Amino acid sequence: MNKWVKTLLILAGSAFLTRFIPFSSLFRNLDTMIHEFGHALVTLLLSGKVLRIELYADHSGVTYSAIQAGGRAIGVALAGYPLASLFALLLFFLYGKGKIRFGLGLTTGIAIIMLLLYVRSSFGMLWLGGFIALNIVMLFFWDRVSKYYYLLLAFLTLEESVTGTLYLVTASVTSPSRAGDAGNLARLTGVPSLFWAALFFLFSLLCAKWALEFFFKAQRMRTGRKG
Fold first, then answer.
1. pTM across the whole model
2. Mean of the per-residue pLDDT values for the chain?
3. For residue 85, how many other CB atoms are within 10 A of its CB?
4. d(CA 125, CA 111)
5. Which residues of 59-75 are buried (b: 16+ CB within 10 A; e: fewer)?
6. Residue 99, pLDDT score
7. In angstroms, rounded to a whole number, what is the distance separating the alpha carbons of residues 220 and 2?
């Protein structure tokens, strides 16, 4: 089977099956957290100032920042979706290397930075606090199920990184004013939002393909050791 078709089928199956896991919707905000953290990180790297970040219950978010117009603003607008896709890839890479605790620790560290420095919306603060507490429980008190919890986070983040960009493509065609980062990039560059949305989508698929390769390679290695 073609690897791209296989990737799409696995993503579709995963997106369908994870809907049946209780409270899985709450964990989908992890992708939003990383997306907004990406905007904030690039803002700081480009000598801008992060004013605040808001996370919402519908899995959306927004980062308010002050940055010099021009290329720097374009860099910030570009950051969210690709960094979220790369983070999903990183989670699977770490899984393949057997570094689940490091992956959970990294995710928890980002959540702590977001909570202490940037997020001030009521839902965002509540979600981050609960997420940090649960991660600490998994890291130090419930190690036996931490692997399955980690995989849940990894697959949900991977799904959201792809479906989010797919929604962006649809919005760019049907309602460009709701195309989020792609719309911002269109205003900053003059290049249509559909181009940016398609670019984000293709990159997310590429990261998803690599991520699943890491996952299945790790599974084969574990099966081989058991045999």
1. 0.92
2. 91
3. 31
4. 10
5. bebebebebeeeebbbb
6. 94
7. 19
